[in-house]
Write a structure and sequence with these properties.
Layout: H1 3-10, H2 14-22, H3 41-55, H4 60-71, H5 77-110, H6 121-128, H7 152-163, H8 167-170, H9 177-181
Helix pairs in contact: 5-7
Length: 187
């Protein structure tokens, strides 16, 4: 089957299939006499494995390890479990960060009047949070009083939330870090 048919059968876009081949996650496909990529059932099985791994949030390097373990019939299940448990620990950390972000934004939104006035506790709270390692940033208390009604735990959560503002740090959406790092869309 051609790449379009393989994409449809596997649920992985043609662009991502080419990407996975280019980074060596899957072997290059054989070509037809006309130069078109050709895929078989084994390729589809591999693509489905990759797709499911991505849906579970595994990164490209972790998928390489999973594929190596999957293809090694002499592996121990302890190796697979250790990799999975490490990923669970990462997910739990991300969940904690996301909960802190949600709670901080909810607190700030609750204190915003949402009217025609220009003052906004949300913007003041974000601007007033000190970023770790940034000596020029203002402290939480210097944001025009926006954070003064917050508990110390909420103020710390706001500082942590603002510090973790990139997808790579917060975990982004499941499966998008590797595509972003390589400027590739999700597939």
């Amino acid at each position: 089957m051609n790449i379009g048919q393989a994409a449809q059968a596997s649920g992985v876009t043609a662009k991502m299939i080419r990407y996975y081949e280019s980074i060596g996650l899957m072997p290059p496909s054989p070509r037809s006499e006309a130069g078109y990529r050709r895929y078989g059932e084994q390729d589809l099985h591999l693509l489905r494995f990759i797709r499911q791994s991505r849906r579970l949030g595994f990164g490209i390097d972790q998928i390489r390890q999973l594929l190596a373990l999957w293809q090694d019939r002499g592996r121990s299940s302890a190796q697979v479990k250790a990799l999975a448990q490490s990923h669970v620990d990462e997910l739990n950390q991300r969940i904690g960060e996301l909960v802190a972000m949600r709670d901080t934004l909810s607190h700030l939104a609750m204190h915003c009047h949402g009217d025609d006035r220009p003052d906004c506790p949300i913007l003041e709270g974000i601007a007033g949070a000190a970023l770790p390692g940034d000596p020029s940033a203002r402290t939480e208390g210097s944001a025009s009083g926006a954070m003064t009604s917050c508990s110390p735990a909420q103020q710390a959560a706001t500082a942590d939330t603002v510090a973790a503002d990139t997808p790579a740090q917060t975990g982004g959406s499941v499966g998008d870090n590797d595509a972003q790092a390589h400027h590739m869309p999700q597939g």
